[in-house]
Amino acid sequence: MEKITEKLLLEKASPKANKLEQIMTLNLSKMRLKLQDLPVKLLSRLQSLEKLDLSGNMLQEFPKNLELPALRFLDLSDNQIEDVTTLDSLSNVEELRMDGNLYITVSHTYKLMVLLPNLRIYNGKDVSTSANHLRYVYSDNLRTRIAALWGNSFRLPDPITAEEMDALESKFVSTACRQVKFGPNSVSDFTRWRVGILAKEYLLSLTEPKKEVDSAETTGTQNNSDVSKPAKRKQTESVIDTSIRLRPHKKPRTDPAASAAEDSPRQLRFRLKPQLDTIKNVPSKTSQAPITPSRGERRSDTPKRSSKEKQTNEDDAQKKKKESSGKKNSRRDADMLQTVETRSDTQPVRLKPLHVLQCHSKQDSLEDFSTQLWACAFQPLPDSAGNAGGSRLVATCGGDSICLIDCEMGMVMKKYKVPGEEFFSLAWSTVLMSRGGNASAQHCSILAAGGKRGIVKLIHPRNNVAYGEFRASRKALSVLRFNHQQGNFLFTGSYDNKILMWDIGGVDSQYNFKVVQLLVLEIGTTPLHICLPPTAPSAHLLTACEDGLHCYNTQLGANNTTKRSKEMEITFPIYKKEDKDHNYHTVDGLSFLNDDIVASKNYLYGCIYLWSWSRTKVQRPDKKSKAVCAVVLAELQWANTDIPYLALNTCPGQAYMVCGDDKGKIWTYHIPNLQKNSFHTGKPILPTEVLEWPTPVKNGHGKVEGPSINSVAMDPELRYLVALSDKNMVIVWKREESP
To answer: Cα separation of 652 and 593, whole Å?
Structure first.
């Protein structure tokens, strides 16, 4: 890439000129330019420039405040444009090319038609009629609605002060963006952006009626549009197996059938003491919703855990302590935990409740506290090499919908609904998207989700496209997991007692894709969780199931079969306590804390195991049962409950593990501190902190009691913690910064 200098600009000019001020046509295409490579001060001297070609570069936006008063033609095709609002300084542009920019949506196109008042030709087509409709008819309709909102709900302060006007403007604009609806949902992002501008203009006209306001003013906004229906789908018949044995329900219920829902979102409000938090509902568009099935039946032969069993772990530990080998192993285990300390802060974090959302309601009902939410995961942000970082956008699933939530704002940014489906699991990955021609492929984040119908939905949230689907099973899907080193490898676990490995490939600019089945892992019972060792995700797979924790060899090769049975079963000390009335084999929580340490949870046992993967896998399995005993490093005290499937999760970067319970509490464990708290005594280690249920208050309905926390997720920096409940509530906690 050449540096943009005055000499280079003169060389690229056509016809040749002696001064920058004389250049009329400039070709800067295919130079791999980024935003920072375009010097605004130098380019601003091109006062006679009429035609500018910036195609085939790597621009994510046009330089802000770059004024080119004579510019009539601009070519930005085959770039990576994400934000079009910086083009507002080019008020005289008549022809614009933006094709080949993957992230440009219909809403972006509409914004351009408003921002560029003289735009006539867009991507080679005459858009004069559409542009004029947006600039005048569409905008007038929005102005009418904004004026009606003001008349019904707002008035000017008396006397008028700068502080009160600032507060009024913020509240009025926010309310208008939320409540003023017009046009199709596919352009709701454009509508909110336009409403924000017009609302400010309207308020200004009330105080300074003679002052004209630039109608092309830009305001930041979040994309809150619904994810559009799949652009490309394989023809797959939706077959629902009514004999599916789903997961144990936590509380029996029967949900009424859904009816048609209104188009405008409804707002639910909960009050979190001592602050007020808003619960947002994105509208449902289905005319029919399934009765929410329970995810199986609880084991009839597993009664509540006896209170006498609380002491069993302590007794075993005391016996082991008397053995010299146990003492030696204890020292080695402490050293293993010590390796985590160098990877995180020395002090535990403090978390405070920030938002409570009720965004998976059937029929957009204010009274829906029955829809169970099952899985959540933060979106990775891939860099140019495909490596993922953290974000504040979390995906949640439950009922017939998937929501993408901005944790800071507490807003549902996008929502995807499938009438008749109930989603049980989701997973993020990063795949390559080809752009055609000579343009290089780029990494993009996709979301896979599945549930009762056995179909995997593939979604590209950034472009609001559900681009495909494929059938992974004739029965319901219980868990999805991508290989974090090879983002196109997807594992699906289902209620037909199988885990399948798929290669979903990448996608092209038209969202064509191909799915190939690679492996079939034969499981004895329903897989509940899938984990891949961080350092070798393509070699082994751990799956937590109804009947235990199993390990499989997933390495691909010419000499390996496509159908695999388990390589070993990992057993735990609590199994020795089993009898005809107590079965602890169900492992309903599993996650790697770092490259070696694994956290797992056995149903009905009130502790969480930390054990070493490397020291466990090197053992020789029993020839008949293929069992090996987990090398346990520590036990963490947890809740005493008989409610199954309360999943745990880990944040390796911050050495944290969290798990919710059946009373709305979240148990947090900061691993570097564990060895300081009586590690050698054999007693279960206490949690670092137990976050209490925030007790939200719904207007007119009183307090909402603590529900079961089905799933939890943290972003890599632990800025946010998200918990999902069995009462249709998403709870967002935020990290408090140290003073």
So the answer is: 5
460 sits in which H/E element:
strand 455-460
Q: Strands 73-75, 51-53: parallel, antiparallel or unpaired by DSSP?
A: parallel
- Find, among 452, 428, 430, the residue nearest to 713 by Cα: 428
Please list the residues that pair with 518 across neighbouring strands: none
Alpha carbons 267 and 478: distance in angstroms, whole number? 31
Taking only Cα atoms into account, the Rg of the chain, rounded to an integer number of angstroms, comes to: 29
Token pair, residue 719, equals 């800025």
Using DSSP, state whether 8 is helix, strand or coil: helix
Taken as a whole, the chain contains a residue count of 739
- Dihedral sign for Cα 617, 622, 628, 629, please: negative
- Helix or strand holding residue 147 (H, E): helix 139-153
Q: Which three-class secondary structure string do you get for 213-271?
A: CCCCCCCCCCCCCCCECCCCCCCCCCCCCCCCCCCCCCCCCCCCCCCCCCCCCEEEEEE
**Lookup: tokens for 18:** 């002696």
**Rounded CA gap, 392 and 381, in Å?**
10
Beta strand 689-691 pairing with 702-703: unpaired
Write out pLDDT tens, residues 26-79.
999 999 999 999 999 999 999 999 999 999 999 999 999 999 999 999 999 999
CA distance 114 to 125: 17
C-alpha to C-alpha distance for 482 and 211, rounded to whole angstroms: 56
- Dihedrals φ, ψ of 248, to 5°? -55, 135
> Are residues 376 and 637 in contact, defined by beta-carbon separation less than 8 angstroms?
no
0.85 surpassed by pTM? no
Q: Nearest 5 degrees, angle CA 382-CA 383-CA 385? A: 105
Q: What is the CB-side half-sphere exposure of residue 204 using CA atoms within 13 A? A: 13
Q: What is the DSSP string of 325-359?
A: HHHHHHHHHHHHHHHHHTTS-SS--EEEEEEEE--
Task: List pLDDT tens digits, range 316-339.
Answer: 444 444 444 444 454 555 555 544
Q: Which of 130, 117, 92 is nearest to 217 (CA)?
A: 117
CA dist 469 and 479 (Å) reads: 16
Give the residue among 122, 150, 147, 117 at the shortest CA–CA distance from 134: 117
Rounded CA-CA distance 621/299 in Å is 28
Spatial distance between the Cα atoms of 408 and 406, rounded to a whole number of angstroms: 6
Report the pLDDT value the prediction gives residue 673, as an integer from 0 to 100: 55
Interstrand relation of 627-629 and 607-612 (parallel, antiparallel or unpaired) = unpaired
- Angle at which helix 139-153 crosses helix 188-207, to 10 degrees, equals 60
Q: Which amino acid is at 84?
A: V
Residue 577 DSSP class? G
Q: Where does residue 645 fall: left (phi above 0), alpha (psi -120 to 50 degrees), or beta otherwise?
A: left
Contact 375, 713 (CB under 8 A): no
Angle at CA of residue 279, ends 276 and 283, nearest 5°: 155
Q: What's the token pair of residue 617?
A: 């896998």
Closest CA to 696 of 256, 189, 118, 279: 279
Which amino acid does the sequence have at 704? V
Q: What single-letter amino acid sits at 556?
A: L
Q: What is the pLDDT of residue 336?
A: 54
- Letter string b/e over residues 389-399, b meaning 16 or more CB atoms within 10 A of that residue's CB: ebbbbbbbbbb
Residues in contact with 435: Cβ distance below 8 Å, sequence separation at least 6, in sequence order: 78, 100, 102, 441, 442, 508, 509
Q: Is the dihedral of CA 426, 428, 431, 436 positive or negative?
A: positive
Q: Which two tokens stand for residue 667?
A: 């148990």
Q: Which residues of the chain have pLDDT under 70?
A: 1, 209-346, 382-390, 436-438, 558-560, 673-682, 699-701, 739
Q: Which of 70, 56, 85 is nearest to 21 (CA)?
A: 70
Query: What is the C-alpha separation between 565 and 551, in angstroms, rounded?
Result: 9
Name the token pair of 414. 């996008």
Q: In this structure, what DSSP letter does residue 621 have?
A: P
Please report the beta strands in 282-325, taking only residues with DSSP state E, as ranges in sequence order: none
